[in-house]
Amino acid sequence: MNSVSLVRRAVATRLAARTRAIAPTSRLYSTPTDQEPDPQLNGYPQLPWKSRQHLKPLGWDDNLTRRNFGDPLHEQEEVLSMWGPDIPPIEPNVALRQFLLALSGFVAFGFTVKYVLLPEAPAVRREYPFDGLVKELGGLEENKARQEAVDTDE
Which Gene Ontology cellular-component terms appear in the entry (predicted)? Predict the structure, then answer.
């Protein structure tokens, strides 16, 4: 074989591989074997529950919605289309675990700052006699201050 025919063969092989890689895989019109046909569809193809956001972005007649001309729509197209709700990039239980881990880190940081890093007060807190000056402040329980500590020096 000459070099021109080898180059042609290599180019043809690459082109065939590229068209196979770009070809849409959404034309699965058969009913899955583990499900019985839905009688409400009345012969309409029972398409798999797969969001169009999972499909390859290139190789479609309409790349924006990832559809080819003449493709049947899924019965839940408004949910499975490109304009439906976004698919989470990670599983919900993994996201919850990561959120709880971050939340526990913030709480641990707060407790560390409050109980470990915060110094004690440099002065003794003020105490009031006569049951916290309840009578002097009007006698209401809402006005009650800290009670006086009794030191017994015997």
Answer: mitochondrion
